[in-house]
Amino acid sequence: MIFANRNQAADSLAVALQAWKGKNPLILAIPRGAVPMGQRLARALEGELDVVLVRKLRAPFNPEFAIGSIDESGWTYVADYAESAGGTSAYLQQEMQAQLATINKRREQYTPLRPPIDPAGRIVIVVDDGLATGATMISALHALRARKPARLICAVPVAPPDTLEKIRGYADEVVCLQAPPFFQAVGQFYADFPQVDDSEVEAILGQA
């Protein structure tokens, strides 16, 4: 199945998540692509929207390929294949510092007038527009588990089967609309998959 765009994917996820409608779920989107989806989900499920800030650790010479991820606290997930992809200890330290600086900058941009919404005791739904390696989702779920939500749900339109198996241990529930065995990139499952820029994220969070 090819989604027309992120809006259609979000609407399909909302149907799959109907059990939580009206229970004030906290929808946490992974910036930037998932933020417009999070907005639609929050409206459809009568919930609240915020972001969870995580960043992938990029492979040397291949910045689109994740060899790990880092959350806002500095906790780091390093994939078991990181070293074979060029992720030496020295490189990872440098990359962690660079990505943590980006996270701190985005927090200042996205929610300058308030702290992040507290997930403690809440039904928390973490949404992304798709998973490839699953690295950033692992960091997001790990960070949120430490904040003691009542229930922690991962919701994505598409992901490869092996990635889904990797993240199941980090969430109470995983909702994925399709898990194709032949997977190259998230964008291949969308007819229209534009970049989402910071100004759009800031506008959506401002409305929320």
Distinct helical segment count = 6
The strand order across the widest sheet is 2-1-6-7-8
Structural class: alpha/beta
What is the total domain count?
2
> Might you state the CATH topology name of the largest domain?
Rossmann fold
The CATH architecture term of the largest domain is 3-Layer(aba) Sandwich
Quaternary structure classification: single chain
Basic shape: globular
Mean pLDDT reading: 96
The Rg value, from CA coordinates, equals 16 Å
User: Into which percent range does the helicity of residues fall?
Assistant: 25-40%
End-to-end C-alpha gap: 31 Å
H and E order: HEHEEEEHEHEHEH
Low-confidence stretches: none
Q: Describe the sheet with the most strands.
A: 5 strands, parallel
Q: Supply the CATH class of the largest domain.
A: Alpha Beta
- Could you give the count of β-strands? 8
Strand content: 15-25%
Describe the structure.
It is a single chain. With 208 residues, this protein is of the alpha/beta class. It has 2 domains: 137 residues, Rossmann fold; 55 residues, Ybab, Chain: A (2-Layer Sandwich). Helix content is 35%, strand content 22%. It is built from 6 helices and 8 strands. Helix 1 runs parallel beside helix 2. The chain is globular, with a radius of gyration of 16 Å.
